Amino acid sequence: MVSHLGLVAAVLLAALLSAPAANVGAAPVDNAAQSIAALRSAINTADAEAAIGLFTADAVVIQPRFGGLPQLYAGREQLRYWLGGLINQHVGLADTTAIVFLDDRLRWPALLTLDSLRDVGLDAVEVESEVVLADDDRISSLTMTYTPTAARRLLASGG
Fold first, then answer.
1. How does pLDDT run across 29-74, given as a tens digit for each residue?
2. 75-88 vs 27-44: helix crossing angle, rounded to 10
3. Rg of the chain in Å (alpha carbons)
């Protein structure tokens, strides 16, 4: 269960973080919000191909290591595998707020839901995601972590 939980959390975060942002004026905030909404929608409707389209061909996803699951995913084929795991876990991504722009990076908190969490009695956990955008505003890397509170809840639940 822990392995599925980590995979699902990583996928959900990747979806949140895959939101591209422009590099000029007020457009970055607007573009990032639209991209995050598009990714969330693609994930919540199990549209892996739409989500994949938000990433560069050589994108990297980094997630915490859980059980025997890989920690790193690189390239579209591995991202498809990663997203497929999320979709199979009926992943859900709550609306995100508080997007912070740090040069070419976006960071934000989100709530993640999935079957593995529900199996251990948790409706959702908080995750923080950071995305690095390429020049074309596609995601070139996504790093996801559980918040300290979420990690404590997961450990206490036996997940």
1. 666 666 777 777 888 899 999 999 999 999 999 987 654 456 889 9
2. 60
3. 14
Chain centroid offset of residue 67 CA: 19
What is the per-residue pLDDT for 159? Answer: 72
| 77-100 per-position pLDDT tens digit | 999 998 888 888 898 888 666 778
Residue 145, CA distances (Å) to 23, 25, 26, 31, 33 in order:
25, 29, 28, 23, 20
**What's the pTM value of the predicted model, to 2 decimals?**
0.75
Give the containing element (helix H, strand E) for 140.
Answer: strand 139-146
* Dist. CA 49–CA 62, nearest whole Å: 20
Q: Left if phi > 0, otherwise alpha if psi is -120 to 50, otherwise beta: which for 99?
A: beta
* DSSP sequence for 66-120: -TT--SEEEHHHHHHHHHHHHHHTT-EE------EEETTEEEEEEEEE-HHHHHT
